[in-house]
Amino acid sequence: MAFDGIVIANLVKEMQDRLVMGRINKIAQPEKDELLFTIKNQKNTWRLLVSVNASLPLLYFTETNKPSPLTAPNFCMLLRKHIANGKILSVTQPGLERIVRIEIEHLDDLGDLCRKFLIVEIMGKHSNIIFCDENDKIIDSIKHISAQVSSVREVLPGRDYFIPKTQEKWEPLEISEDVFKNVIGHTAAPVQKALYMKLTGLSPIVAEEICHISGIDSDMSANALSDLELTHLYHMFLQIADDIRNGQFVPNIIYKGEVPEEFASIPLSCFSGEEYHSVPFSSISTLLESYYAQKSTVTRMKQKSVDLRRVVQTALERNVKKYDLQMKQMRDTEKREKYRIYGELLNTYGYELKGGEKNLACLNYYTNEEITIPLDPQISAQENAQKYFNKYNKLKRTAEALSSQTEQTKAEIEHLESISAALDIALKEEDLVPIKEELMEFGYIKKRSAGGKKVKITSKPFHYISSDGFHIYVGKNNYQNEEVTFKIAGGGDWWFHAKGIPGSHVIVKTGGKELPDRVFEEAGALAAYYSKGRNNDKVEIDYIERKFLRKVTGAAPGFVIYHTNYSLVAAPKLELEEIQG
Prior knowledge:
single chain; 21% strand
């Protein structure tokens, strides 16, 4: 995430447009480290959320109201006392620091006009909301920081407020070309790191973008850049700096498939792969609310599925170890033929032995080569032959048993890998229900008691419409793979699946028509995207008419066999819009 100085500048511009000359109508503190302001400005009412949570500090406008505790915390009461109904005079940002200063005019106890400052610092775990008087003397803060906690700066009532300078950084909106070239050009770190290390408010992703638009390798040492390259780097950086100064922001989220990967207030052309796409937003607040809501959904899904993932991963690791052991034992049985040949040759040539020999050298009539057979000198040739036949028969029985066992173990591994793929595909909590049911059915999770309430399954396969109007269905799990293939699909419909790796069954309903080439490409892209090969550049896809598929007898749901198929290579991407309902 790039909650950097540029995003703060974008927020400050939005706050200036909406809040200046507005009055603070309500102040609430829903959480111990969060404030919610309601500001009225002319005919508009705005809600401003300020959170300085150590793990996720936030600042944006929201339409969502949050319940507050019955008794307001002390900091909230203090703000209400001083600035309730106060007028917002200005919203500023010192340079490109991750700091917002809100200047508020209000009446004191004597009815005289006073000014106060509410300072919001968005600095990761050091984030804070600090309330100061007109002389920057701290009145109070939502978090108290004593000298025992920080040797850099105390944040306590009565202390002077100042911005701590923990690193020697330059102000990017004021830096000259000569200083820029001198500072960056004498840094041994990679160019990208040099930019965000030496310039205030730049995040690693913005630094990467500056390198990208400059055509400079971001991993190259900055002090290895030529004077011409430094000049070009500065002028590309200057374009971004000019946009910030002029308030020309482009809020956008970069998605990798359906998952939000990054956000910024400038275009991010460095995300250029086919799996990435950018979605612009008219407001940075709308962007932030959307981004963190989606991130929260992804995080919540990971938390909800963590127990199921643990069950699957544990069973998978156990079966992989078992399979490796079985294959080692199977390799050990390969020498059984040698023992059979030893026995037969001893029966043929054993009459030559007089007794007490430790080996027999003879012709192997299977290969026409001489062979030496080890012997137990304490027993006869016939008994040595029988000993070898016994070893052969034992290994043969072991091989026959292992052959069946390895097939079962391999099938179980493939089944567990398919469930793991289904967990990766799951987007909603309801998608986890059929996966849990499958794990219970196959004994990986203890089944609910006989009187237990059966869980209703509401998850449905993905449903898309191709560019040419053909319906495409994608199974999210093994049960749905079975459903789309053998219930939704007819014999003349087309079936797609990633070759040799776990993934979804993709069905294209033909409606009795011949499919255009573009439909095959779109269905192949879906089959690649909803597979374990999602992060690969290309995935090989098998496709075949549904009527040529057969269920695997006794196998887990969704497992099929086919013998004659077509193949294509597709890039995993999601370009079609899902049909809801």
